[in-house]
């Protein structure tokens, strides 16, 4: 039997001033780069462009893949997340169905606002300037209730 992973795509979007796009999620109130599940009919780059637009109102182009992350979490949640460094090409940050707020932040402000450690690592990897994508696995022990 093959393992079942969800595939997610996240965009680390920069504007021409070098500021980072963040959204504040409606479901948990966290500030994060926009992203979500890759749909069956999406290309990988198409998924991140779609998710950025849906969650923030910003139109983006992909520059490059900046990281691949495997998350093995509690309660049987398995996700492979692809993170793309992107450039803003249109639109403006606006709230949407899944977001309370969206805005541009300096890299330092963005690192302070993003509270989830694994998402901060993704942001740091994307902004590091390294050419090769980061590859990381995050394993959380299974918890039993």
From TrEMBL:
InterPro entries xrefs: Nudix_hydrolase, NUDIX_hydrolase-like_dom_sf, NUDIX_hydrolase_dom
Pfam families: NUDIX
GO molecular function: hydrolase activity
Keywords assigned: Hydrolase
Keyword Chloroplast attributed: no
Domain of life: Bacteria
Residue ranges of every copy of the Nudix hydrolase domain listed in the record: 4-127
Keyword Transferase included in the entry's annotation: no
Co-factor requirement: Mg(2+)
Classification via PANTHER family: GDP-MANNOSE MANNOSYL HYDROLASE (PTHR43046), MUTT_NUDIX FAMILY PROTEIN (PTHR43046:SF14)
UniProt name for this protein: ADP-ribose pyrophosphatase YjhB, NUDIX family
């Amino acid at each position: 039997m093959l393992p079942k992973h969800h595939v997610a795509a996240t965009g680390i979007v920069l504007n021409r001033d070098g500021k980072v796009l963040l959204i504040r999620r409606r479901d948990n109130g966290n500030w994060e780069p926009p992203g979500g599940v890759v749909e069956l009919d999406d290309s990988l780059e198409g998924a991140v462009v779609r998710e950025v637009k849906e969650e923030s109102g910003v139109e983006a182009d992909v520059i490059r893949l900046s990281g691949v992350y495997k998350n093995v979490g509690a309660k049987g949640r398995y996700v492979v997340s692809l993170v793309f460094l992107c450039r803003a090409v249109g639109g403006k940050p606006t709230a949407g169905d899944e977001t309370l707020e969206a805005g541009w932040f300096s890299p330092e402000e963005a690192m302070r606002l993003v509270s989830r450690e694994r998402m901060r690592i993704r942001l740091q990897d994307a902004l590091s300037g390294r050419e090769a994508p980061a590859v990381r696995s995050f394993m959380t022990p299974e918890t039993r209730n």
